[in-house]
Amino acid sequence: MQGYKGYLLGATGALALGLAASSLLAQETTLTIESWRNDDLSIWQDTLIPAFEAEHPDINLEFTPTAPTEYNAALNAKLEAGSAGDLITCRPFDASLALFEQGYLAPLDDLEGMANFSDVAKSAWNTDDGATPFCVPMASVIHGFIYNADAFAELGLEEPETLEEFYALLDAIKEDGGYVPMAMGTVDQWEAATMGYQNIGPNYWMGEEGRLALISGEQSLTDEPWVAPYRELAKWGEYLGDGFEAQSYPDSQNLFTLGRAAIYPAGSWEIALFEEQADFEMGAFPPPVVNEGDTCYISDHTDIGIGMNAATDNPEAARTFLNWVASPEFASLYSNALPGFFALSNEPVSLENDLAQEFVSWREECESTIRSTYAILSRGTPNLENETWNASANVINGTETPEDAAARLQDGLASWYEPQQGE
Predict the structure, then answer these.
(1) What string of DSSP letters covers 110-169?
(2) What predicted TM-score, i.e. pTM, was given to this entire model?
(3) Which CATH number fits domain 141-300+370-420: 3.40.190.10, 3.40.50.150, 3.40.630.30, 3.50.50.60?
(4) DSSP assignment, residue 245?
(5) Res. 22: pLDDT tops 60
Protein backbone atom coordinates (compact mmCIF):
# COMPACT_ATOMS: atom_id res chain seq x y z
CA MET A 1 0.00 0.00 0.00
CA GLN A 2 2.81 2.33 0.89
CA GLY A 3 4.33 1.59 -2.48
CA TYR A 4 1.05 2.39 -4.21
CA LYS A 5 0.80 5.68 -2.29
CA GLY A 6 4.35 6.44 -3.20
CA TYR A 7 3.54 5.68 -6.80
CA LEU A 8 0.53 8.02 -6.66
CA LEU A 9 2.57 10.78 -5.04
CA GLY A 10 5.31 10.28 -7.58
CA ALA A 11 2.86 10.34 -10.48
CA THR A 12 1.10 13.39 -9.06
CA GLY A 13 4.41 15.12 -8.54
CA ALA A 14 5.51 14.31 -12.08
CA LEU A 15 2.20 15.61 -13.41
CA ALA A 16 2.58 18.80 -11.38
CA LEU A 17 6.11 19.23 -12.62
CA GLY A 18 4.90 18.65 -16.18
CA LEU A 19 2.17 21.25 -15.82
CA ALA A 20 4.65 23.67 -14.28
CA ALA A 21 7.05 23.06 -17.14
CA SER A 22 4.25 23.61 -19.65
CA SER A 23 3.27 26.80 -17.87
CA LEU A 24 6.89 27.91 -17.84
CA LEU A 25 7.21 27.21 -21.56
CA ALA A 26 4.03 29.21 -22.22
CA GLN A 27 5.43 32.09 -20.21
CA GLU A 28 8.58 32.02 -22.26
CA THR A 29 7.04 32.30 -25.75
CA THR A 30 8.91 35.21 -27.32
CA LEU A 31 8.04 36.96 -30.57
CA THR A 32 10.67 39.04 -32.35
CA ILE A 33 9.53 41.97 -34.48
CA GLU A 34 11.54 43.11 -37.51
CA SER A 35 11.12 46.79 -38.47
CA TRP A 36 12.79 49.71 -40.24
CA ARG A 37 11.28 52.24 -37.82
CA ASN A 38 14.23 52.56 -35.44
CA ASP A 39 12.85 55.93 -34.35
CA ASP A 40 9.88 54.03 -32.86
CA LEU A 41 11.97 52.02 -30.40
CA SER A 42 10.96 53.95 -27.29
CA ILE A 43 7.28 53.88 -28.29
CA TRP A 44 7.36 50.11 -28.55
CA GLN A 45 9.33 49.66 -25.33
CA ASP A 46 7.42 52.18 -23.24
CA THR A 47 3.86 51.94 -24.58
CA LEU A 48 2.97 49.18 -27.03
CA ILE A 49 4.85 46.18 -25.65
CA PRO A 50 3.79 46.76 -21.99
CA ALA A 51 0.14 47.11 -23.08
CA PHE A 52 0.20 43.85 -25.06
CA GLU A 53 2.12 41.85 -22.47
CA ALA A 54 -0.23 43.00 -19.71
CA GLU A 55 -3.09 41.31 -21.59
CA HIS A 56 -1.01 38.35 -22.78
CA PRO A 57 1.49 37.46 -20.04
CA ASP A 58 2.34 34.21 -21.87
CA ILE A 59 3.80 36.10 -24.85
CA ASN A 60 6.89 38.30 -24.71
CA LEU A 61 7.73 40.79 -27.46
CA GLU A 62 11.15 41.93 -28.66
CA PHE A 63 11.28 44.88 -31.06
CA THR A 64 14.51 44.68 -33.07
CA PRO A 65 14.64 47.45 -35.70
CA THR A 66 17.17 47.93 -38.48
CA ALA A 67 18.19 51.29 -40.00
CA PRO A 68 15.65 52.27 -42.69
CA THR A 69 18.19 52.31 -45.53
CA GLU A 70 19.42 48.83 -44.60
CA TYR A 71 16.09 47.18 -43.77
CA ASN A 72 15.10 45.67 -47.12
CA ALA A 73 18.50 44.07 -47.75
CA ALA A 74 18.95 42.91 -44.14
CA LEU A 75 15.43 41.46 -43.96
CA ASN A 76 15.81 39.60 -47.25
CA ALA A 77 19.12 38.12 -46.06
CA LYS A 78 17.55 36.98 -42.77
CA LEU A 79 14.54 35.47 -44.51
CA GLU A 80 16.76 33.56 -46.94
CA ALA A 81 18.89 32.30 -44.05
CA GLY A 82 15.86 31.35 -41.94
CA SER A 83 16.88 33.71 -39.14
CA ALA A 84 14.24 36.45 -39.48
CA GLY A 85 11.91 37.35 -36.62
CA ASP A 86 8.40 36.03 -36.11
CA LEU A 87 6.76 39.30 -37.17
CA ILE A 88 7.73 41.38 -40.18
CA THR A 89 6.96 45.09 -40.41
CA CYS A 90 5.74 45.63 -43.96
CA ARG A 91 6.50 48.45 -46.35
CA PRO A 92 3.52 49.27 -48.60
CA PHE A 93 2.79 47.59 -51.92
CA ASP A 94 5.31 45.86 -54.15
CA ALA A 95 8.21 45.24 -51.73
CA SER A 96 5.95 43.30 -49.35
CA LEU A 97 3.99 41.66 -52.18
CA ALA A 98 7.28 40.23 -53.46
CA LEU A 99 7.99 38.74 -50.01
CA PHE A 100 4.55 37.14 -49.96
CA GLU A 101 4.95 35.73 -53.47
CA GLN A 102 8.29 34.24 -52.42
CA GLY A 103 6.58 32.47 -49.53
CA TYR A 104 8.15 34.54 -46.74
CA LEU A 105 4.93 36.16 -45.47
CA ALA A 106 1.96 34.07 -44.36
CA PRO A 107 -1.52 34.70 -45.84
CA LEU A 108 -3.85 36.43 -43.37
CA ASP A 109 -7.19 36.09 -45.16
CA ASP A 110 -8.53 34.02 -42.22
CA LEU A 111 -7.27 36.39 -39.51
CA GLU A 112 -10.29 37.61 -37.56
CA GLY A 113 -8.95 41.14 -37.15
CA MET A 114 -8.75 41.78 -40.91
CA ALA A 115 -12.51 42.45 -40.83
CA ASN A 116 -11.71 45.73 -39.06
CA PHE A 117 -10.21 47.30 -42.23
CA SER A 118 -11.60 48.68 -45.46
CA ASP A 119 -10.45 47.54 -48.91
CA VAL A 120 -8.51 50.81 -49.32
CA ALA A 121 -6.73 50.22 -45.98
CA LYS A 122 -5.80 46.67 -47.00
CA SER A 123 -4.78 47.59 -50.55
CA ALA A 124 -1.10 48.10 -49.73
CA TRP A 125 -0.73 44.55 -48.41
CA ASN A 126 -3.01 42.50 -50.62
CA THR A 127 -2.66 40.40 -53.75
CA ASP A 128 -3.55 42.14 -57.00
CA ASP A 129 -6.92 40.41 -57.09
CA GLY A 130 -7.69 41.64 -53.55
CA ALA A 131 -8.28 38.10 -52.30
CA THR A 132 -5.35 37.51 -49.95
CA PRO A 133 -4.11 40.09 -47.44
CA PHE A 134 -0.69 39.31 -45.95
CA CYS A 135 -0.02 42.18 -43.53
CA VAL A 136 -2.25 43.89 -40.97
CA PRO A 137 -2.52 47.62 -41.79
CA MET A 138 -1.01 49.72 -38.99
CA ALA A 139 -1.06 53.34 -40.11
CA SER A 140 -1.37 55.82 -42.94
CA VAL A 141 -0.25 59.38 -43.49
CA ILE A 142 -2.60 62.07 -44.78
CA HIS A 143 -1.72 64.90 -47.16
CA GLY A 144 -2.86 68.49 -46.95
CA PHE A 145 -1.51 71.92 -46.04
CA ILE A 146 -0.17 73.01 -42.65
CA TYR A 147 -0.22 76.75 -42.00
CA ASN A 148 1.10 79.31 -39.55
CA ALA A 149 -2.09 80.22 -37.67
CA ASP A 150 -0.45 83.29 -36.11
CA ALA A 151 0.41 84.60 -39.58
CA PHE A 152 -3.13 83.95 -40.78
CA ALA A 153 -4.53 85.84 -37.79
CA GLU A 154 -2.08 88.71 -38.33
CA LEU A 155 -3.09 89.04 -42.00
CA GLY A 156 -6.78 88.36 -41.45
CA LEU A 157 -6.75 85.21 -43.58
CA GLU A 158 -9.05 82.18 -43.51
CA GLU A 159 -8.61 78.59 -44.63
CA PRO A 160 -9.55 78.16 -48.30
CA GLU A 161 -12.14 75.64 -49.40
CA THR A 162 -12.03 76.11 -53.17
CA LEU A 163 -9.25 76.54 -55.71
CA GLU A 164 -10.28 80.18 -56.27
CA GLU A 165 -10.02 80.88 -52.54
CA PHE A 166 -6.65 79.11 -52.43
CA TYR A 167 -5.07 81.39 -55.01
CA ALA A 168 -6.68 84.47 -53.48
CA LEU A 169 -5.05 83.45 -50.20
CA LEU A 170 -1.62 82.97 -51.80
CA ASP A 171 -1.92 86.30 -53.60
CA ALA A 172 -2.80 88.09 -50.36
CA ILE A 173 0.25 86.62 -48.58
CA LYS A 174 2.51 87.48 -51.49
CA GLU A 175 1.20 91.03 -51.71
CA ASP A 176 1.76 91.62 -47.99
CA GLY A 177 5.40 90.56 -48.39
CA GLY A 178 6.00 89.52 -44.79
CA TYR A 179 6.00 85.79 -45.48
CA VAL A 180 6.89 83.41 -48.28
CA PRO A 181 3.43 82.13 -49.27
CA MET A 182 4.42 78.44 -49.43
CA ALA A 183 7.54 76.57 -48.30
CA MET A 184 8.51 73.89 -50.79
CA GLY A 185 11.61 73.29 -52.87
CA THR A 186 12.12 71.19 -55.97
CA VAL A 187 15.78 70.15 -55.82
CA ASP A 188 14.96 66.83 -54.12
CA GLN A 189 12.03 66.30 -56.52
CA TRP A 190 10.03 63.87 -54.37
CA GLU A 191 8.30 66.67 -52.45
CA ALA A 192 7.01 68.17 -55.71
CA ALA A 193 5.22 64.90 -56.44
CA THR A 194 4.33 63.77 -52.91
CA MET A 195 3.22 67.09 -51.40
CA GLY A 196 2.30 68.60 -54.75
CA TYR A 197 0.88 66.29 -57.41
CA GLN A 198 -0.33 63.50 -55.11
CA ASN A 199 -1.69 66.04 -52.63
CA ILE A 200 -3.98 67.99 -54.97
CA GLY A 201 -4.41 65.38 -57.72
CA PRO A 202 -7.13 63.17 -56.18
CA ASN A 203 -9.60 66.06 -56.44
CA TYR A 204 -9.14 65.89 -60.22
CA TRP A 205 -9.01 62.14 -60.90
CA MET A 206 -11.65 61.40 -58.24
CA GLY A 207 -9.49 59.36 -55.92
CA GLU A 208 -9.83 55.62 -56.18
CA GLU A 209 -12.08 55.88 -59.24
CA GLY A 210 -9.31 57.45 -61.30
CA ARG A 211 -6.47 55.42 -59.79
CA LEU A 212 -8.19 52.14 -60.61
CA ALA A 213 -9.13 53.40 -64.09
CA LEU A 214 -5.46 54.10 -64.75
CA ILE A 215 -4.51 50.59 -63.63
CA SER A 216 -7.21 49.01 -65.82
CA GLY A 217 -6.27 51.11 -68.84
CA GLU A 218 -9.63 52.91 -68.97
CA GLN A 219 -7.83 56.22 -68.40
CA SER A 220 -4.38 57.41 -69.40
CA LEU A 221 -1.97 59.98 -68.00
CA THR A 222 -2.73 62.32 -70.88
CA ASP A 223 -6.43 62.49 -69.95
CA GLU A 224 -7.59 65.77 -68.44
CA PRO A 225 -7.93 64.52 -64.83
CA TRP A 226 -4.23 63.63 -64.83
CA VAL A 227 -2.92 66.70 -66.70
CA ALA A 228 -4.98 69.26 -64.75
CA PRO A 229 -3.02 68.88 -61.47
CA TYR A 230 0.18 69.68 -63.40
CA ARG A 231 -1.45 72.88 -64.67
CA GLU A 232 -2.00 73.86 -61.05
CA LEU A 233 1.57 72.99 -60.06
CA ALA A 234 2.80 75.19 -62.89
CA LYS A 235 1.28 78.14 -60.99
CA TRP A 236 3.00 77.30 -57.71
CA GLY A 237 6.45 78.57 -58.65
CA GLU A 238 5.55 82.21 -58.14
CA TYR A 239 4.52 81.50 -54.53
CA LEU A 240 7.51 79.44 -53.34
CA GLY A 241 9.98 82.26 -52.77
CA ASP A 242 13.37 83.08 -54.27
CA GLY A 243 15.65 80.17 -55.02
CA PHE A 244 13.10 77.41 -54.44
CA GLU A 245 14.70 75.45 -57.31
CA ALA A 246 17.77 74.89 -55.11
CA GLN A 247 15.84 74.45 -51.85
CA SER A 248 16.10 71.03 -50.17
CA TYR A 249 13.49 69.28 -48.04
CA PRO A 250 15.20 70.26 -44.74
CA ASP A 251 15.50 73.83 -46.07
CA SER A 252 11.74 73.95 -46.58
CA GLN A 253 11.05 72.53 -43.12
CA ASN A 254 13.30 75.17 -41.56
CA LEU A 255 11.76 77.96 -43.62
CA PHE A 256 8.37 77.07 -42.20
CA THR A 257 9.30 76.29 -38.58
CA LEU A 258 11.34 79.51 -38.32
CA GLY A 259 8.16 81.43 -39.15
CA ARG A 260 9.30 82.74 -42.52
CA ALA A 261 6.66 80.95 -44.62
CA ALA A 262 2.90 80.98 -44.10
CA ILE A 263 1.93 77.61 -45.62
CA TYR A 264 3.62 74.24 -45.98
CA PRO A 265 2.29 71.64 -48.48
CA ALA A 266 2.52 68.73 -46.12
CA GLY A 267 2.21 65.18 -45.08
CA SER A 268 0.91 64.54 -41.58
CA TRP A 269 4.26 62.96 -40.68
CA GLU A 270 5.54 66.52 -40.18
CA ILE A 271 3.34 67.15 -37.15
CA ALA A 272 5.65 65.95 -34.36
CA LEU A 273 8.74 67.72 -35.74
CA PHE A 274 6.90 70.96 -36.47
CA GLU A 275 5.34 71.09 -33.01
CA GLU A 276 8.75 70.52 -31.49
CA GLN A 277 10.48 73.24 -33.53
CA ALA A 278 7.88 75.93 -34.26
CA ASP A 279 6.99 78.54 -31.65
CA PHE A 280 3.71 79.55 -33.30
CA GLU A 281 0.24 78.05 -33.48
CA MET A 282 -0.49 75.84 -36.49
CA GLY A 283 -3.57 74.77 -38.38
CA ALA A 284 -4.24 72.58 -41.39
CA PHE A 285 -6.63 72.45 -44.33
CA PRO A 286 -7.30 69.73 -46.93
CA PRO A 287 -6.57 70.19 -50.63
CA PRO A 288 -9.10 72.76 -51.89
CA VAL A 289 -11.81 71.42 -54.20
CA VAL A 290 -11.95 72.74 -57.75
CA ASN A 291 -15.50 74.11 -57.43
CA GLU A 292 -17.72 74.80 -54.46
CA GLY A 293 -19.84 71.77 -53.63
CA ASP A 294 -17.46 69.23 -55.21
CA THR A 295 -16.74 66.00 -53.36
CA CYS A 296 -13.34 66.33 -51.70
CA TYR A 297 -10.67 63.66 -51.91
CA ILE A 298 -7.61 63.19 -49.73
CA SER A 299 -4.47 61.13 -50.11
CA ASP A 300 -4.75 58.91 -47.04
CA HIS A 301 -1.71 56.88 -47.93
CA THR A 302 -1.16 53.44 -46.44
CA ASP A 303 2.35 53.58 -45.00
CA ILE A 304 3.12 50.76 -42.57
CA GLY A 305 1.76 47.27 -41.80
CA ILE A 306 2.89 44.11 -40.04
CA GLY A 307 2.76 40.46 -41.09
CA MET A 308 3.79 37.00 -39.95
CA ASN A 309 6.93 35.22 -41.02
CA ALA A 310 5.63 32.09 -42.74
CA ALA A 311 8.45 30.13 -41.09
CA THR A 312 7.77 31.26 -37.52
CA ASP A 313 7.86 28.61 -34.81
CA ASN A 314 5.11 30.49 -32.95
CA PRO A 315 2.23 30.96 -35.40
CA GLU A 316 -0.57 31.02 -32.82
CA ALA A 317 1.19 33.58 -30.64
CA ALA A 318 1.97 35.64 -33.73
CA ARG A 319 -1.69 35.58 -34.80
CA THR A 320 -2.72 36.64 -31.28
CA PHE A 321 -0.43 39.64 -31.60
CA LEU A 322 -1.66 40.50 -35.11
CA ASN A 323 -5.28 40.43 -33.93
CA TRP A 324 -4.26 42.85 -31.18
CA VAL A 325 -2.65 45.15 -33.77
CA ALA A 326 -6.01 45.08 -35.58
CA SER A 327 -7.85 46.16 -32.41
CA PRO A 328 -9.17 49.60 -31.43
CA GLU A 329 -6.83 49.54 -28.41
CA PHE A 330 -3.72 49.36 -30.60
CA ALA A 331 -5.15 51.97 -32.98
CA SER A 332 -5.55 54.45 -30.13
CA LEU A 333 -2.17 53.74 -28.55
CA TYR A 334 -0.23 53.93 -31.83
CA SER A 335 -1.98 57.02 -33.22
CA ASN A 336 -1.48 58.98 -30.01
CA ALA A 337 2.11 57.89 -29.55
CA LEU A 338 2.95 58.93 -33.13
CA PRO A 339 0.94 62.06 -34.03
CA GLY A 340 0.47 62.17 -37.80
CA PHE A 341 0.51 58.40 -38.28
CA PHE A 342 -3.13 57.36 -38.32
CA ALA A 343 -4.56 53.95 -37.55
CA LEU A 344 -6.33 52.39 -40.52
CA SER A 345 -9.00 50.41 -38.69
CA ASN A 346 -12.66 51.21 -39.26
CA GLU A 347 -13.12 52.14 -35.59
CA PRO A 348 -12.76 55.93 -35.06
CA VAL A 349 -9.82 56.92 -32.88
CA SER A 350 -9.89 59.83 -30.43
CA LEU A 351 -6.62 61.74 -30.78
CA GLU A 352 -5.03 63.89 -28.11
CA ASN A 353 -3.07 65.99 -30.62
CA ASP A 354 -5.26 68.76 -32.06
CA LEU A 355 -3.38 69.08 -35.36
CA ALA A 356 -3.44 65.31 -35.90
CA GLN A 357 -7.15 65.31 -35.07
CA GLU A 358 -7.70 67.99 -37.71
CA PHE A 359 -6.02 65.85 -40.39
CA VAL A 360 -7.88 62.68 -39.49
CA SER A 361 -11.23 64.50 -39.31
CA TRP A 362 -11.06 64.92 -43.09
CA ARG A 363 -11.86 61.22 -43.42
CA GLU A 364 -15.38 62.07 -42.26
CA GLU A 365 -16.00 64.61 -45.03
CA CYS A 366 -13.70 63.48 -47.88
CA GLU A 367 -13.12 60.28 -49.84
CA SER A 368 -9.79 58.56 -49.12
CA THR A 369 -7.38 57.30 -51.74
CA ILE A 370 -3.72 56.29 -51.95
CA ARG A 371 -0.89 57.70 -54.07
CA SER A 372 -1.66 56.84 -57.66
CA THR A 373 1.78 55.52 -58.58
CA TYR A 374 2.39 53.09 -55.71
CA ALA A 375 0.36 50.03 -56.64
CA ILE A 376 1.23 48.05 -59.79
CA LEU A 377 2.15 51.07 -61.95
CA SER A 378 5.76 51.39 -60.76
CA ARG A 379 6.88 47.80 -61.27
CA GLY A 380 8.52 48.42 -64.64
CA THR A 381 11.12 50.67 -66.22
CA PRO A 382 10.82 53.60 -66.41
CA ASN A 383 9.47 53.67 -62.86
CA LEU A 384 6.33 55.82 -62.83
CA GLU A 385 6.80 56.93 -59.21
CA ASN A 386 10.30 58.27 -59.84
CA GLU A 387 9.30 59.77 -63.18
CA THR A 388 6.42 61.58 -61.46
CA TRP A 389 8.93 63.15 -59.04
CA ASN A 390 10.91 64.50 -61.96
CA ALA A 391 7.91 65.67 -63.96
CA SER A 392 6.35 67.47 -61.00
CA ALA A 393 9.58 69.31 -60.22
CA ASN A 394 10.07 70.25 -63.88
CA VAL A 395 6.55 71.62 -64.18
CA ILE A 396 6.92 73.77 -61.05
CA ASN A 397 10.33 74.95 -62.27
CA GLY A 398 8.82 75.85 -65.63
CA THR A 399 11.23 73.64 -67.60
CA GLU A 400 8.51 71.29 -68.90
CA THR A 401 4.88 72.03 -69.76
CA PRO A 402 2.10 70.09 -68.05
CA GLU A 403 1.13 68.53 -71.38
CA ASP A 404 4.69 67.49 -72.24
CA ALA A 405 5.24 66.03 -68.78
CA ALA A 406 2.03 64.01 -68.98
CA ALA A 407 2.87 62.74 -72.47
CA ARG A 408 6.34 61.66 -71.36
CA LEU A 409 4.98 59.78 -68.37
CA GLN A 410 2.31 58.12 -70.50
CA ASP A 411 4.86 57.01 -73.11
CA GLY A 412 7.05 55.56 -70.37
CA LEU A 413 4.19 53.68 -68.73
CA ALA A 414 2.86 52.36 -72.04
CA SER A 415 6.32 51.08 -72.96
CA TRP A 416 6.05 48.26 -70.41
CA TYR A 417 2.50 48.21 -68.96
CA GLU A 418 0.18 46.26 -71.25
CA PRO A 419 -3.21 47.75 -70.20
CA GLN A 420 -1.89 51.17 -71.32
CA GLN A 421 -0.77 49.94 -74.75
CA GLY A 422 -4.18 50.11 -76.40
CA GLU A 423 -5.23 47.81 -79.24
Answers:
(1) T-GGGGGB-HHHHGGGB-TTS--B-SEEEEEEEEEEEEEHHHHHHHT-----BHHHHHHH
(2) 0.84
(3) 3.40.190.10
(4) G
(5) no
